[in-house]
Amino acid sequence: MIIFQNVTKIYKMDDHETVAVEDINLHIHQKEFVSMVGKSGAGKSTLIKLLTGEEKPTKGKVSFGSYNVNKLKPNELPFLRRKMGVIFQDFRLLPNKNAYENVAFALEVAGRTQQEIMEFVPQALEMVGLKDKMRNFPRELSGGEKQRVAIARAMINHPDVIIADEPTGNLDPVNTWEILKLLLKINELGTTVILTTHNKDIVNSINKRVISVEDGRVIRDEEEGKYILV
Amino acid sequence: MLTTLSRVIKYGLVGFWRNGWLSTATIAIVFLVLVGFGGLIMFNSLANIVLTDIQDKIDISVYFKTEAPEDRMLEVQRSLESLPEVKSVEYISRDKALETFREQHKDDETVSQALEAIDVNPLAASLNIKARELKDYEAIAGYLEKDTFREITDKVSYTQNVGVIDRLKKIKSTVEQGGLLLIVFISLIAALIIFNTIRLAIYSNREELSVMRLVGASNFFIRGPYMVQGVVYGLIGSIMSAVVVTLGVLYSSPYVKIFVPDVNGWAYYLSNLFGFVAMQVIFGVGLGVVSSYIAVRKYLRI
């Protein structure tokens, strides 16, 4: 479903170049749960940005389902992103909207009706255990709660893939496990999940596919892999 | 599409309300700039009315020789009236001139005694000519220099008035050009200030814009609410400024009247009220919308 073909991304800054990722070939299948591990600066986030269309590859091709991501025009990107649910380390909720409105926003941009929104949003917030905090603004929520709102938002459009970029980086161990359990549950329900993380414990405990990235290259790609520090 | 449009408008209004301070500051700036803009336009219009009023008082006169026959003089009048530059020609016969002269000097004993003493009408008949434009007087004066006219005319008053006409011509063109330049200049400053204010407001929301893009919002969905806010800024700012300019004209028109008694600034303003307010609203709303459109563009490339 997701294919990286000979993908290279070079950032050009004035007179020097930084190679972020080089010659990446990856194939992620439907309903897979993939952990992407590696040190900071290894290139994990660049791979995510190439997939969401935030960055364009210098060489190679990124495709997602029928979309050729690197050929999409800015006005076509929203349609791609409605098929993806993205979760970030820093939550990225809209600060001026409460939990309900944050989740509803993803439906509104997709042009769904008010009736659908009133039906689906409480369901999604119930699934992440936040039904009683629907009217709270992000500043009134804890880190774990914010991340659960973000997951509800990512889930609401029934995306083909959930991309979680270090979702537990800012959370304590209890919340980390809560979030991981939610992601596994989403995966069991049939959604592809791509998780990037530093957290060795969670990677080792779930026995799923692990892709190790170092210096912009994939150095290991194993089914039921482990986080192996180099 | 209709759902999207109504959501865009709703978010615009909600954003306007939730960013209370920023909205207030932006409206204040729009308001101040528009007061300057409106005041300047009003001043320029008034200056033009005053000058036109003075211009109406200017004319040139042709004095005929006392022995000139009346039908020749009326012929001159008709030929002048056929000129495109001429607005009106008034014939003043010798008797009428004498009557006016007596009327003006009726309290002056020596003048009436002198008139009695000479026993004939010493005054010449004349034509009073008003031109359409100040610059036309020169051409009319030139036309009267023709030989056929010279036989019966005594003198043309243009040469005496030429200094006054020239000065008025200069003042008029200075006010027109200077006013236009000033309006363009102020408009430019206004546009820059308003643009920058809205840009700052949007800059403080740039994180939100990127989140919206990543959640799959189209550019119209992100940009729309800001443009709605721009409309609201412009609308409120321009209505406030229209009220202030109206009050300003109301209170200043008595002073203008002292300066130029024939000009009623308030009545003039009232008769053009719709135009003035519409101009302010269009300028304010236009600036708000265009500024928002351009300012958001930068953040929509993600």
UniProtKB/TrEMBL annotation, chain A:
<comment type="similarity">
    <text>Belongs to the ABC transporter superfamily.</text>
</comment>
<dbReference type="InterPro" id="IPR015854">
    <property type="entry name" value="ABC_transpr_LolD-like"/>
</dbReference>
<keyword id="KW-1003">Cell membrane</keyword>
<dbReference type="Pfam" id="PF00005">
    <property type="entry name" value="ABC_tran"/>
</dbReference>
<keyword id="KW-0131">Cell cycle</keyword>
<dbReference type="InterPro" id="IPR005286">
    <property type="entry name" value="Cell_div_FtsE"/>
</dbReference>
<keyword id="KW-0547">Nucleotide-binding</keyword>
<dbReference type="GO" id="GO:0005886">
    <property type="term" value="C:plasma membrane"/>
</dbReference>
<dbReference type="InterPro" id="IPR027417">
    <property type="entry name" value="P-loop_NTPase"/>
</dbReference>
<keyword id="KW-0132">Cell division</keyword>
<dbReference type="GO" id="GO:0022857">
    <property type="term" value="F:transmembrane transporter activity"/>
</dbReference>
<dbReference type="GO" id="GO:0051301">
    <property type="term" value="P:cell division"/>
</dbReference>
<feature type="domain" description="ABC transporter">
    <location>
        <begin position="2"/>
        <end position="230"/>
    </location>
</feature>
<keyword id="KW-0067">ATP-binding</keyword>
<comment type="function">
    <text>Part of the ABC transporter FtsEX involved in cellular division.</text>
</comment>
<keyword id="KW-0472">Membrane</keyword>
<dbReference type="GO" id="GO:0016887">
    <property type="term" value="F:ATP hydrolysis activity"/>
</dbReference>
<dbReference type="InterPro" id="IPR017871">
    <property type="entry name" value="ABC_transporter-like_CS"/>
</dbReference>
<dbReference type="InterPro" id="IPR003439">
    <property type="entry name" value="ABC_transporter-like_ATP-bd"/>
</dbReference>
<dbReference type="GO" id="GO:0005524">
    <property type="term" value="F:ATP binding"/>
</dbReference>
<dbReference type="InterPro" id="IPR003593">
    <property type="entry name" value="AAA+_ATPase"/>
</dbReference>
<comment type="subunit">
    <text>Homodimer. Forms a membrane-associated complex with FtsX.</text>
</comment>
Automatic annotation (TrEMBL), chain B:
<keyword id="KW-1003">Cell membrane</keyword>
<dbReference type="InterPro" id="IPR003838">
    <property type="entry name" value="ABC3_permease_C"/>
</dbReference>
<comment type="similarity">
    <text>Belongs to the ABC-4 integral membrane protein family. FtsX subfamily.</text>
</comment>
<keyword id="KW-0472">Membrane</keyword>
<dbReference type="InterPro" id="IPR004513">
    <property type="entry name" value="FtsX"/>
</dbReference>
<dbReference type="GO" id="GO:0005886">
    <property type="term" value="C:plasma membrane"/>
</dbReference>
<feature type="transmembrane region" description="Helical">
    <location>
        <begin position="180"/>
        <end position="202"/>
    </location>
</feature>
<feature type="domain" description="FtsX extracellular">
    <location>
        <begin position="59"/>
        <end position="146"/>
    </location>
</feature>
<dbReference type="Pfam" id="PF02687">
    <property type="entry name" value="FtsX"/>
</dbReference>
<feature type="domain" description="ABC3 transporter permease C-terminal">
    <location>
        <begin position="181"/>
        <end position="301"/>
    </location>
</feature>
<keyword id="KW-0131">Cell cycle</keyword>
<dbReference type="Pfam" id="PF18075">
    <property type="entry name" value="FtsX_ECD"/>
</dbReference>
<keyword id="KW-1133">Transmembrane helix</keyword>
<dbReference type="GO" id="GO:0051301">
    <property type="term" value="P:cell division"/>
</dbReference>
<feature type="transmembrane region" description="Helical">
    <location>
        <begin position="21"/>
        <end position="43"/>
    </location>
</feature>
<feature type="transmembrane region" description="Helical">
    <location>
        <begin position="231"/>
        <end position="253"/>
    </location>
</feature>
<keyword id="KW-0812">Transmembrane</keyword>
<protein>
    <recommendedName>
        <fullName>Cell division protein FtsX</fullName>
    </recommendedName>
</protein>
<keyword id="KW-0132">Cell division</keyword>
<dbReference type="InterPro" id="IPR040690">
    <property type="entry name" value="FtsX_ECD"/>
</dbReference>
<feature type="transmembrane region" description="Helical">
    <location>
        <begin position="273"/>
        <end position="296"/>
    </location>
</feature>
